[in-house]
Structure prediction request, 404 residues.
Amino acid sequence: MGIQLREIGAWTRERKFAAMLLVAATLAIGILIGTVISGRVNATHSILPSGATLLDLPNPVSMSNAFGAIVERDEPAVVNISTTQVIERKGQPQNRGGGSLDPFHDFFNRFFDAPDEGPEAERSLGSGIIVDKKGFILTNNHVIEQATKIQVQLNTEPTLYTARVIGIDKETDLAVVKIEANRDLPNAKLGNSNGVHVGDWVLAIGSPFGLQATVTAGIISAKDRGNVGRQFQHFLQTDAPINPGNSGGPLVDAQGQVVGVNSAIATLGTGSVDGGGQSGSIGLGFAIPINQVRRVAQELVQTGKAVHPVIGAIIDTSYTGIGARIATSSTGGQPPIIQGGPSARAGLRPGDVIVAFDGKRVTSADELIVDIRSHQPGDKVQITFTRSGARRTVTLTLGSASSS
Prediction:
């Protein structure tokens, strides 16, 4: 009896083992068949009757929020500036077509309608950048020029603060004003415009046509653009839409750093609904590189005025040849070469034609002035010039002259 029970137990274990093997084999075969069928189904759905492959629909991917993060961080440091100016109008001639004869306009020149003659209070709108938490605000000189009252509105509140002028610099069209907010204010981070490349993304933040906290995007379309309007300095060119009222606001790079101060636009001069002869943005905006701005702004904060580099020579603006010629006679009581000045110390003489400045070719007087302005007083530069047919190069240390 004991032997029979042992045999029955062994037989039962063998049956269980066999059943387990059968179940495992069945599962393996099922998985294999399912894989083959799935592959055939996918192949069937991915091939169109024409033999072309079906275009796959990828999983949804969130759009980049980089711009949003930059705006959230920088926008509180951008302010709206409104001014009141008393201007004596003397019936300036207008283009019959309603547009300006000069395609380069200050952003809010004649932003509001005004009569052609007699004194008139004119309101203007612009933008500014808080550069110090104590309330120092950087803007364009033409935003506050001749203003009898300057008011600043922060993006985060409706309060209008009365601002006082700390310093202006007409040469670079920059100004610094200050408000008393009785608290630390958010300030913008200034970048390094030397690192900007053509094609880089940028944002323009400001108050075009009084529309506060407006953001537009574009790219740097050119660098070192000179001869923009009446300003003898290099500009960054951008296609980011900027309009009247953006003046004085920041041009911000992809790291959220200010690389320029928006200052001018080119227009078609076809006129606009504000009656000022401006058609707004056509994709040609110009910003002063922040590296040129930084030094001037710091000097305005510290002393109320700025100094600019000079070579100590009078340039003959009537010269039509290639290069920039030093005048051959006194102009306005000033000698062609300032005695003891940078040019005199470097050995330059009246009539010398400067053809290169610090390794860059010079083709005109305007171009030379722009190149000089891109440096700082005390910089050592190489001046290449021609004299009596001979080409020479000297080292010149730039001098300085205070702004008016």
Remarks:
- The chain has a mean pLDDT of 81.
